[in-house]
Amino acid sequence: MQVISTVSELRIRLGNERAIAFVPTMGNLHEGHLNLMRLARELGDCVAASIFVNPLQFGPSEDFDKYPRTLEADCAKLQGLADVVFAPSINEMYPAQQTVFVEPPPVANELCGATRPGHFRGMATVVLKLLNIVQPQVALFGKKDYQQLHIIRQMVAQLDLPVRIVGGETLRATDGLALSSRNQYLSDAERGEAIFLYQMLQGLRQNILQGERDFERLQQQAVEALIARGWLVDYVAVRNQSDLQRASPVQGGLAQRELVIMAAARLGNTRLLDNIEVCLID
Fold it and tell me: Is 150 assigned a catalytic role?
């Protein structure tokens, strides 16, 4: 496995590869990332990963400075899974002040975008840069960041990028908590409480499968339940999988049959994100 820190060296290394599968990360790798790497091995002859904490997607009061940087440990975990690891510095990725950005679709201003203005603009910009640098045939992203995955798919489709985007299923701890690099911020007591977010999503999914269609009421009940347990809630939302627009009941059923329930909430100083898909059948 090669660890490369410059764009020029990476392009030389990958120049003759014709089946690259790419997994972009911000490091501090956990089993969810490694599962994406294993899937990448099934989809490409050369597997590349990137480790880069992107300053453009952090707001001024967010955790950019304290975001864990564990390059040595990450590379040890990638041994046998990746052929190439791209680990650039900020100056390598942004040798001059970035003044050209990707403008994401309007949905980027909703859900996570409502409380993290500019986040998806910075995320889409760095992903486009990485895709241009690596030139993969396949790129893999986790479904835990459902809105991010949707925006990346929109960017790739509308800008005609020659890459297939694959979403990897969310990996969970044995008690159901979605694996995340930020889980390590949780205290022991908070870690015990954190599983309630997924339990709440499972409850909403069951209500919808049983025929409940008053999504506004379901969302409000979920928010109130979280608040009652000490959470600070950003949102709980029932959306269409295809476009992330609000799910709309129509006479006799639903406008769309494939839904996703999304939630983001803070427990102490840690912001947790999760979702669960709901596929309805007649």
Answer: no
Using the 8-state DSSP alphabet, how is residue 234 labeled? Answer: E
- pTM for the full predicted model: 0.95
pLDDT tens digit sequence for 7-30: 999 999 999 999 999 999 999 999
Say which residue the tokens 């009941």 belong to: 249
**Distances 242 to 150, 189, 255 between C-alpha atoms, Å:** 8, 37, 12
Per-residue DSSP letters for 249-282? EETTEES-SEEEEEEEEEETTEEEEEEEEEE---
Catalytic residue among 30, 33, 119, 150: 33
Report pLDDT digits (tens) over 194-216: 999 999 999 999 999 999 999 99
Number of residues in the chain = 282
* Three-state secondary structure call for residue 84: strand
Q: What is the pLDDT of residues 104-148, one digit of tens each?
A: 999 999 999 999 999 999 999 999 999 999 999 999 999 999 999
What are the chain's domains?
2-168 (3.40.50.620), 181-277 (3.30.1300.10)
